[in-house]
Design a protein that fits this description.
Distance between the termini: 67 Å
Helix content: 25-40%
Low-confidence stretches: 1-25, 33-38, 410-416, 744-797
Strand content: 5-15%
CATH topology of the largest domain: Rossmann fold
Number of strands: 25
Number of domains: 3
Shape: elongated
Number of helices: 23
CATH architecture of the largest domain: 3-Layer(aba) Sandwich
Structural class: alpha/beta
């Protein structure tokens, strides 16, 4: 490419499509098009023969895309053969790295295999081989590796991992190399595709060699090659036709179905025209990369990837830098202002909702994903282009260095190694605790949740923005924890257990008490048994409820040592589980602390709960039932506390509490349920329609008031971080701005139509502060509108 004589360097593309000059391409392409047989395969066969010579592998198949090639490679492994056990759908897993194009990993889903994510190596951006070995299991049947940017991974180390798997489990996982970036790359002095693995190349429009779209599959055995040759085109054997008559299109019997993955003659013709240029293209890319290697050494804030070992040559489809200390966006802007485009190229795959069930903690990738930046390195760069890029990176680095010299040195973040297991972490209180710990501790967080109806799946954790920082396992604790789960969680590293999971819907406990009570007791018992096997466990925190003490009289507040008087099966199950926890503390030395919490509210609460239910009904103009004392004149009351205050109290207890002790977490203020409904109506600027009700026949054992004494925790120095009125106001606003959490997504009232701020209704406020109209339906603080027909039950989390 000729150097530009212009003073202003035009925008340098990150990639540029290469096509052969028209004179070299037009004639053969037009010949194929005019022949009428553009899928006859003659040019495909010619192109494959050229590729066989280039790679030194006779088992070469062309396909219509690299993605099709990966799908075909996995499909070929489903059948057992020899010592290969085959694949079992929805059981066997593929170890793969998420730092790649989704084209690498979506074929795993299409073949109905399970994904197990492997961390990335910050030195190479390839798969971390240490983590790869750690992730081996009896269901690890396939390993997909990506040669990031065209630089090969250590294939000898991958082969050693295969042998480790064989020694442990009796089989060698098959290795598929995604070499989409790496056409012409070499490892150990040999081109990729000659090391005994299946290798898939992409010939898409922006790759070194292009057929506009297409791919190449190199197979390690003749059996896989012969099957792949048939399956890429419907399973039809082109060399065998029906013997009946002269109709050449009639195929013979098809013993195994296949796909339309084959390459056609038009694409092959384009590839044949492009291929003679490959050596020159690779040489230019490598020359550009060598220039960057020489001129970008030891720059503050900019880190190069590790140098390649002897005998390894990159194709340099990408030239990757790591931009440190959170400065990548600034780096992008700095280069963009100078007419240079930089990019991370690929979004990590594991954060997409379609693979949420496979979420895993990948601490190295969590850092690396925010640092990766790729600058132009392609064959089209001129000498002056390279100089401009180097100068831009150096000036960026110099600015970072100058600013760093003026800053006070920061304390490095602690490495996340010790683990905290949180049960019920997908639930309402649980996800607030998970978020608080992710942002305020250095624990590796492991979440165990059975994903019941109340969990909303992973949606709560996704919404917090910390989803990629945690490990999640879907498991029902009413069953014993199996050895495999112990292994997967790396249980010996668990130092803290926060047992939040429980069935909490009081109405369900009344309707079906036996399975409800069994679940809450068995889940706690199984977790306690699990905790006895943990060599490094320092704290076991059991979440209990104010309901274990029963209904509180006016002016009464229960202290930690007061007797339990549960009123319904739910509170009885929590009381029983609490007693079992204390027995394990006394008998086995489980490092127990119990926390009794009160009525929680906050963002992402289930719409059946009182405050979101009030928001929903008031916005729709519906009536609310307010449960009341006998005579229907005095509403029942609750102490309310924001879930983030509860999360803060948990961390405080871990740091200041003592084993064997109980701690009440008291809300800031006690409100009757009418006052809460009034405040919600005031904030929404809507009329409140309500009815007092004093006969909850559908809720025997109903308590109208709960109260805890919080002096013990306050004496240790704990204070609620969030004030009640302001946090309630923000919660109302947030729920209205995120109506999917109210299940009113299409409702006509929109957040932009709501008042920005309204005066709070304080306890005892005059009724005429809000629009009140007596009607018929409703709620009490914990129990909501469940006592009457047409209302929704409410129970405490």
């Amino acid at each position: 490419m000729a150097e530009s004589n212009s003073d202003a360097l035009p925008l340098i593309p990150l990639f540029k499509v290469f096509m052969a000059p028209p004179a070299e391409l037009d004639a053969p392409l037009l010949s194929v098009l005019h022949s009428g047989y553009i899928t006859q395969g003659k040019k495909v066969e010619e192109f494959e023969e050229v590729l066989r010579g280039f790679f030194g592998n006779p088992r070469v198949l062309t396909v219509n895309s690299g993605t099709s090639g990966l799908h075909l490679a996995l499909h070929l492994l489903q059948q057992p053969h020899g010592d290969w056990p085959g694949l079992t759908e929805q059981v066997d897993e593929v170890l793969t790295c998420p730092l790649t194009c989704t084209a690498t990993n979506w074929p795993i889903l299409a073949n109905r295999m399970r994904i197990k994510w492997v961390d990335a190596d910050p030195k190479t951006c390839n798969m971390c081989l240490l983590d790869l070995e750690r992730k081996l299991s009896p269901t690890t049947k396939v390993i997909i590796i990506v040669h990031w940017g065209g630089s090969p991974i250590d294939l000898d180390a991958v082969a050693r991992v295969q042998e480790v798997c064989f020694r442990r489990f009796g089989f060698r996982p098959h290795v598929i190399e995604d070499a989409a970036h790496a056409f012409g790359a070499e490892y150990g002095g040999r081109k990729l595709g000659t090391h005994g693995n299946t290798v898939v190349y992409s010939l898409q429009a922006i790759k070194h060699v292009t057929t506009v779209d297409g791919g190449v599959v190199l197979l390690p055995t003749q059996r896989l090659y012969e099957r792949g040759k048939l399956i890429r085109w419907f399973g039809i054997d082109r060399e065998r036709r029906s013997g009946t008559g002269t109709d050449f299109r009639m195929e013979s019997d098809i013993p195994e179905y296949g796909f339309k993955f084959h390459m056609n003659d038009v694409n092959a013709t384009i590839g044949l025209a492009n291929f003679p240029h490959i050596h020159g293209l690779l040489a230019r890319c490598r020359e550009n990369a060598a220039y960057f290697d020489a001129h970008l050494q030891q720059l503050p804030g900019v880190e190069l990837l590790a140098p390649l070992p002897e005998g390894t040559r990159s194709a340099y489809w990408l030239y990757t830098l790591r931009i440190l200390d959170g400065e990548r966006d600034r780096f992008y802007k700095h280069l963009r202002d100078r007419g240079i485009v930089a990019s991370a190229v690929h979004q990590r795959n594991d954060t997409h909702s379609t693979v949420a069930r496979f979420i895993a903690l990948l601490p190295q990738l969590n850092t690396l994903a925010g640092e990766v930046a790729c600058v132009p390195v392609g064959w089209w760069l001129s000498a002056s282009d390279r100089e401009r890029i180097v100068d831009a990176i150096k000036t960026f680095s110099a600015a970072i260095a100058a600013e760093s010299a003026l800053r006070t040195p920061s304390i490095p973040l602690k490495r996340r190694n010790k683990k905290c297991l949180i049960t019920g972490g997908c639930g309402f209180i649980g996800h607030h605790v998970v978020e608080h710990f992710a942002r305020n501790t250095d624990y590796q967080l492991v979440v165990l949740d059975k994903l019941s109806y109340a969990s909303k799946g992973f949606d709560r954790l996704r919404s917090t923005g910390i989803f990629h920082l945690i490990e999640i396992f879907c498991f029902d604790l009413s069953n014993e924890l199996p050895p495999g789960l112990f292994y997967e969680m790396d249980a010996p590293q668990i130092e803290v257990i926060l047992h939040i999971a429980a069935e909490t819907h009081v109405d369900n406990s009344i309707d079906t008490p036996v399975p409800f009570v069994e679940n809450n007791i068995k889940s706690t018992l199984h977790l306690l048994e699990f905790s006895r096997r943990l060599p490094n466990l320092k704290h076991f925190v059991y979440f209990s409820t104010d309901e274990v003490y029963g209904s509180a009289a006016e002016g009464e507040a229960f202290k930690e040592g007061d007797a339990h008087r549960p009123s319904n099966p739910y509170s009885a199950s929590k009381s029983a589980a609490e007693m079992i926890c204390h027995s394990y503390y006394n008998t086995y030395g489980v490092p127990l602390m119990v926390m009794n919490v009160m009525n929680a509210f906050g963002e992402r609460q289930h719409p059946e709960k009182f405050i979101p239910l009030c928001i929903n009904k008031i916005m729709k103009g519906e009536e609310i039932t307010i449960h009341a004392y006998k005579g229907a004149t005095k509403p029942g009351s609750r102490w309310y506390i924001h879930a983030r205050n509860i999360a803060a109290s948990v961390l405080f207890v871990l740091e200041h509490g003592s084993h064997g002790e109980k701690y009440n977490v008291q809300g800031e203020i006690e409100l009757n349920n009418l006052e809460v409904a009034q405040f919600v109506a005031q904030e929404l600027g809507k009329e409140l329609k309500y009815k007092m009700h004093d006969n909850p026949t559908q809720r025997p054992g109903h308590d109208l008031r709960y109260a805890l004494d919080g002096d013990k925790l306050r004496a240790l120095g704990f204070a609620l971080p969030l004030t009640f009125w302001e946090s309630l106001r923000k919660t109302i606003r947030w729920m209205c701005q995120n109506p999917e959490w109210l299940d009113i997504g299409s409702y006509e009232h929109r957040p932009e139509n709501l008042p920005v701020q309204r005066r709070a209704v304080q306890p005892g406020a005059a009724v005429d502060q809000v629009h009140l109209k007596k009607g018929s339906s409703g709620a009490s603080g914990r129990d909501s509108a469940g006592a009457l027909a047409g209302s929704v039950p409410f129970s405490k989390l």
